[in-house]
Amino acid sequence: MRIGRICWKGAPVNREEISRIAHADHPIKAPLDDESVRQLLAKALPRGDERVLDLGCGGGEWLLRALDTGPQVHAEGVDVSPEALAQADEAATRRGLRERLVLHRQDAAQFAAPQPFDLVLSVGAAHAFGGLLPTLAAARKHLAPGGSVLVGDGFWERPPTAEAVEMLGDFGDLAAVVDSVVAEGWTPVNGHISTRRELDAYEWACWGGLAAWALDHRGDARSGEVLETADTRRTEWLHTYRDSFGFVSLVLRRTREDRA
Ligand SMILES: C[S@@+](CC[C@H](N)C(=O)[O-])C[C@H]1O[C@@H](n2cnc3c(N)ncnc32)[C@H](O)[C@@H]1O
């Protein structure tokens, strides 16, 4: 789940490169399968002419799939990673969607736009804002009246160990997470709780994919370190958080449009 910083030959390894390899088979950088993403976007984009913003867009996969839902949809993505934005740029061009996509390289918490958005996405990027509720507060600043937020973040399926909390952050259980969101004036109108299959598939795609790259590139100077990273992350997943970590995606609307 986490992409850590690793070093070889005394120089920091480009963690974006590691992330790119690890997500090669899972362009959505969160534990949701294609059908779950499709269903959430279908609920969140009912009209087909929405303006969509993604705070922490990564390689832009959510936005590209949103743009695919209709030719009148327009999208903007914000991310701090130049590598991820370059990937989004390339993929949008390849898929014929580039003209309807604007990319911003900056801290999502500082992002300001002249016009509001009908849908604000932020999946797996709550750390950029300091947690789920600050993420929603940031998203709300960009939301057009009647708009929706699609947010995805962790929760504890079972009580975590202290090590798991240290590794992934402190969440509540599912009910506590949803209650906290409702208490901030949001109503969930749709959602998805990642299945065991989706959670495991994501971890295998990341750490299995990274290991496979290392084995396929034995001649590469980075191979040994990449394999070590894959081993470490797989071990952390299996030993530390697989039994406790869950992931929930929520489509939210303001309960009262006028509520501050
Ligand atoms: C786990 S990835 C999720 C990407 C995307 N939402 C997805 O689901 O495919 C988290 C992303 O948040 C970005 N990020 C981290 N801190 C950020 C910040 N302060 N502002 C904008 N993006 C940030 C990272 O660069 C990364 O692309």
UniProtKB/TrEMBL annotation:
Pfam families named among the record's database cross-references: Methyltransf_25
GO biological process: methylation
TM spans (from-to): none
Keyword Cytoplasm applies: no
Domain Methyltransferase: 52-147
Keyword hit for Zinc: no
InterPro entries on file: Methyltransf_25 (IPR041698), SAM-dependent_MTases_sf (IPR029063)
A GO term, aspect molecular function: methyltransferase activity
Protein name: Methyltransferase domain-containing protein
Organism lineage: Bacteria, Bacillati, Actinomycetota, Actinomycetes, Kitasatosporales
